[in-house]
Amino acid sequence: MTFRQFAFNNVVRNKRLYAAYFLTSLFTVMVFFTFSIFASHPQLTGNNMDSYVSFGMNVAAGIIYVFSFFFVLYSMSSFLQSRKREFGLLMIQGMSMKQIRSMVFLENMFIGLLATIGGIGLGLVFSKGILLIAENVLIIDNELPFYFPTQPILITFGCFMVLFFLISLFVSYILRSRKLIDLIKGDKKSKGEPKANLFLTILAVLLLGTGYAVALTVEGLQVFFALIPVVIVVIIGTYLLFTQLSVFIIRRLKKKENVFWYKTNMILLSDLSFRMKDNARSFFLVAIISTVAFSAIGSLYGFQSYITAGIKQMNQTTISYQDYDTGNEEANVSYIDETLREANVDVDKEQVTLLYYELPDESQVMVTKESDYNRIAELSDNETVQIEDGAPALMGPEVIFLNIGGDNSNKEEADILKDAELELGNTVLEPVQLVESSILPATQKYYVVSDHDFESLPKPAMEENYYAWQEAEDKEIPLGIAEKLDDELSTEGIRIGEYEEYLINKMYGPILFVGLFIGIVFFVSAGSFLYFRLYSDLDEDKKKFQAITKMGLTEKELKKVLNRQTALLFFAPIAVALVHGAVALTALSNMFFYSLVKESAMVLGMFLAIQIVYFFIVRFYYIRQVKQALR
Known about the structure:
By secondary structure, the chain is α+β, with helices and mostly antiparallel strands. The chain is built from 20 helices and ten strands. The radius of gyration is 32 Å and the shape is elongated.
């Protein structure tokens, strides 16, 4: 048997430990290759908006490639840690450390070659389906037909073979200083039960509490300025949480006899206590990586929701039109009517007159009458208002976005109404009601007065006609018609909410798509870290449970212990990451004064569901391995 065959057989014999490393590397290669297919697609390389999609894919591929280096390096380190004793036995048999390093180098290159070829192969198999999905998600004008991606294949193969080569060199280098006695006793040396420092334990609570408190209380631009300090504080607090606070809690539980001696708690708590030092690093990495994935995807999804919600809020009717003093009002309105009629789009139409008055600060304020406001409100299915003569009502967008004498977020309604009093010549408008409304085209406050009072207002600085069309059955108008109207009249004052939302989604789709892929890569990698942490102790667990079974541990109790042990390993860091992610997304909500509860729940719930499925799969094979060793 040649040396290369020996290295190959080592890989085959250790396929259980190599499985997660190989599959995750394969998945990473496939994602990188998929991005390369997009970035090099002939339809995305032109001088149009779709070229931004190509740029985004290239950036994402770069991020994935850099992350892949560190992930593969960590995976190899975890794998080699579990093979110390094997290396020691090989040295006893006469193998030199140089030969061991050569063997590890060949093994890693072999795995890397298989993962690279496999990832490219899977990418080719699923590429057509992924391109079809991308056409819809990215809202690309042109179709993305399948093409044989020669350039992406060469780039992916070259990049990942270089990556695996560099990692193989690095890993073989760090093995050179290992002593025989350390290798032989590597898995038997007791690491001792870790102890918690009381000061650091308290510091962990203070850091996390302070970080959460600041993140949840700041609002507006304060969130942006608090971002970096809060992130640093929470990262340090998370590290101390797993290295100090968790150890402190476990030791306290061990001292409580009613807890420690209850059924199989002694096995579980003792195991956790001695392994917490090794688990802490993995828990910290998984928590932080998962938090990045949650926060990134949640932020991207939430920001898209915020923008589209704003567009819907500001466009209550299907189409609206204001003449920007172009002199083409009559012709433009006729063009809109004719275009809708030719397309057989059934619409209801209203027209109102808006008055604009100059203010001392050279800004303008809009005033309209009650009947006109109510006609637009009924057209867009909004609530109407009733105003007594002599009592105008202040109307405006969301109160929190009104710029009436500064920030109104903490003001009482009576104070806002008082600040909104307005003097127009000899007429004083004294608002008696605050209504959250944006059905008329005003970015700040505007006033609605009764029809009787409207007639007595002084001469305005400017009058403007406002037209609104509403699809009779509340359906979307055809995209082609919306695009035609927008192309013709976008500079003349037309607004089509559905088309604006379409353009935003078209522009934002690539960002969300890229963010989702990167987030999934991070999350899958985090799950693989936990897999390595669990299976690196498998041989030790087999011996431990063999001994305990001889003392009377039943199969039911064994399964219960393994279930709880595996669940804690998988869900302790994920629970922390979910809390971190929820706080981060709440802070984002406070920054934009927009609730992201729905978006946060969807993102966090999706990742939790994936983690639960992954847990059941890994737990099944882990318990089966332990039970087989006991037979």
